[in-house]
Amino acid sequence: MLAFGSPLGLEGTVTAGIVSAVGRTIEDSGSSLGNLIQTDAPINPGNSGGALVDSTGRVIGINVAIATTGEDSGNIGVGFAIPIDTAAAVAARLAG
What is the DSSP secondary structure assignment for residue 71, as one 8-state letter? Predict the structure, then answer.
């Protein structure tokens, strides 16, 4: 699986990993995010909004968060993405 994004402003970056789990719930800035895809692909600041793609090229999620060990910590190998079905439903609602 591949994670696309622009970590730290480095446009067009692609990293590889596996889907580690599905259906994860995390706390982020006081909000709860549920039904997330967990991945070990390196996801860093700037990857949010980028595509998470499976081995067939199908977009399976949108990168949204990473787990860290502290405020100044970087990637520790635990990233999260919103499933593409959820992202598509939100986009449809926003489009009216």
Answer: T
* Cα-based torsion angle of the residue sequence 64, 4, 23, 25 in order, rounded to the nearest 10 degrees: -20
Bridge partner list, 72: none
CATH class of 2-95: mainly beta
* Rg of the chain over all Cα atoms, to the nearest angstrom: 13
Overall pTM surpassing 0.85 (yes/no) = yes
- Alpha-carbon distance 60 to 53, whole Å? 5
First vs last C-alpha separation in the chain: 32
Give the integer Cα–Cα distance in Å for 47 and 81: 10
| Per-residue pLDDT tens over the stretch 60-69 | 999 998 887 7
For residue 75, give both structure tokens: 């990637």
